[in-house]
Amino acid sequence: GFKMGIVGLPNVGKSTLFNALTKTAAAQAANFPFCTIEPNVGEVNVPDARLDKLAAIAKSASIIPTRMTFVDIAGLVKGASKGEGLGNQFLANIREVDAIAHVLRCFEDGDVTHVEGRVDPVADAEVIETELMLADLESIEKRRANLVRKLKGNDKEAQQQDRLLAMAQDVLENGQPARVVEVSDEDAKAWKMLQLLTTKPVLYVCNVAEEDAATGNAHSAAVAEMAAAQGNSHVIISARIEEEISQLEDDEAAMFLEEMGLEEPGLDRLIRAGYELLHLETYFTVGPKEARAWTIRQGTMAPQAAGVIHGDFEKGFIRAETIAYDDFVSCGGEQGAKEAGKMRAEGKAYVVKDGDVMHFLFNT
Ligand code: GDP
């Protein structure tokens, strides 16, 4: 599955957000910087109205959304790269995620201590990014030192690694994150394997006060500008509102949202934004027993998409019967789509499209 790491300075609302995401009180929100030692991991459903629609048409007995994993990575503070706070361990946790949800404090509240003594989300973002850049630089230096012997032996893989590490080092030493490095297609895989922290895509989560949830505020506007300049994305959320919503029944939640002037829970937007950031898509399998959503990367071909369900589906792949989401809906289901000639037989080279309803045929 895909993993998003929630990072941010202490007291910006990470635990509150994580609790709302996972609807548990397990990750206790407290006005205390280092309360979380083990990273908290939570799986969340990816909201998708299309899945409910497909299930209604096919009268599926159960609905199974696709899932995304969030990891609450607390304890990242100024000096983390030098092992301050619980620095090093948290940096290791960040290495393992696919993308970073960076929570920024965009609310004023004299009762909640800010570690830097002021509310300035853009400066906060820089504090964290600087730690990540320093951590990358340190690991690059170590790794390059370890490569020296192999380089003497004319090892091609080592040469490629060293060349890429040098490129990253160069931009980092100039105060920029490694993600600004442009990598050729041939180097793409090795580059990714380096797992540099500042190559991970970032989604800024502006945690605003309840009354600013619908509109944002000056702080979130400043973050939006920064994000756009970096080519990263941002969402505006009130972690407090999300926490309240997560404890309500669906109909109550809908009323509450309307009162707050919100069209949908911020968490839905957050999860969707994460999806976009990671270039993920969804395809569906639909039948009387269940309607289910599956996650793939954009550009995935049919056999590999089948492999998400089961390895045997990929190995023995013969072909896929495919109906586009819109056709499935407008024809009133599989039978109707078939009769209208909207069911396609697709082979191994078919690139699955977002929303496709798939049925895989395979040899066992
Ligand atoms: P973390 O250290 O980043 O995980 O932050 P927490 O989620 O524990 O939140 C720290 C404190 O800030 C808690 O007392 C929260 O209730 C409070 N807090 C979180 N979000 C908001 C918000 O939008 N407005 C206000 N006023 N307080 C908030």
UniProtKB/TrEMBL annotation:
One Pfam family this sequence matches: YchF-GTPase_C
Gene3D superfamilies, sorted: 3.10.20.30, P-loop containing nucleotide triphosphate hydrolases, TGS-like domain
Domain annotation OBG-type G: ranges: 2-279
Coiled-coil intervals, chain numbering: none
GO (cellular component) term, any one: cytoplasm
UniProt keyword list: ATP-binding, Magnesium, Metal-binding, Nucleotide-binding
Residues that, per the record, bind ATP: 11-16
Keyword Repeat carried by entry: no
UniProt entry tagged with the keyword Kinase: no
Molecular function per GO: ATP binding; ATP hydrolysis activity; GTP binding; metal ion binding; ribosomal large subunit binding
Matches recorded under SUPFAM superfamilies: P-loop containing nucleoside triphosphate hydrolases, TGS-like
Purpose of the protein: ATPase that binds to both the 70S ribosome and the 50S ribosomal subunit in a nucleotide-independent manner.
Family, per entry: Belongs to the TRAFAC class OBG-HflX-like GTPase superfamily. OBG GTPase family. YchF/OLA1 subfamily.
Family annotation (HAMAP family): YchF_OLA1_ATPase (MF_00944)
Name of the molecule in the record: Ribosome-binding ATPase YchF
Organism: Lutimaribacter saemankumensis
Lineage: Bacteria, Pseudomonadati, Pseudomonadota, Alphaproteobacteria, Rhodobacterales
Gene label: ychF
